[in-house]
Design brief:
InterPro entries: Histidine_triad_HIT, HIT-like, HIT-like_sf. The chain is built from 3 helices and 5 strands; from the N terminus they run αβββαββα. The chain is α+β, with helices and mostly antiparallel strands. The protein has one domain: HIT-like (HIT family, subunit A, 2-Layer Sandwich). The protein has a 5-stranded antiparallel sheet. It is globular, with a radius of gyration of 17 Å. The structure holds zinc ion.
Length: 138
């Protein structure tokens, strides 16, 4: 896609610090990282949502994310990592090209996901949701 920054990076029309690339995927250092080593991993072909990827591509993307995360841990500079996917603007998706974020972590980095834990919904609402999801998984 002509105006997509992740497509441009995958096609080398825009500079990025690429850490991995093959015919299907591209991984590069985030230009404005949460932590040093924050990596964006994308399928090279433009796709707005990971939910639209073929199963095989989706699986390979996550296997590659794991390999990158393991490599990050081998640097010995980090204690852990987060792998995050932001789907939709309300969830923080800032590019229409779907991507996984691999974020190296150390105990003192001060980065917090800011999850607000809430009381669970009513039993009736939980059962309704469970049934809905069960019926939609195919
Ligand atoms: Zn794109």
């Amino acid at each position: 896609m002509d105006n997509c920054i992740y497509c441009k990076i995958s096609e080398h029309r825009e500079h990025a610090d690429i850490v991995y690339q093959d015919d299907t995927f591209c991984a590069f250092l985030h230009p404005t990282p949460i932590n040093h080593g924050h990596i964006i991993l994308t399928a090279s072909a433009h796709c707005t949502s990971l939910t639209l990827l073929e199963d095989e591509t989706y699986s390979k993307l996550h296997c590659l994310a794991r390999k990158i995360a393991v490599a990050i841990l081998k640097t010995k500079n980090y204690d852990g990592f987060n792998i995050q996917y932001n789907h939709g603007e309300c969830a923080g998706q800032d590019s229409l090209h779907a991507a996984l974020h691999i974020i190296p972590r150390v105990g003192t980095d001060g980065f917090h996901l800011n999850w607000r834990m809430q009381k669970p919904a009513s039993e009736e609402n939980r059962k309704e949701l469970i049934e809905f999801i069960k019926n939609k998984i195919s």
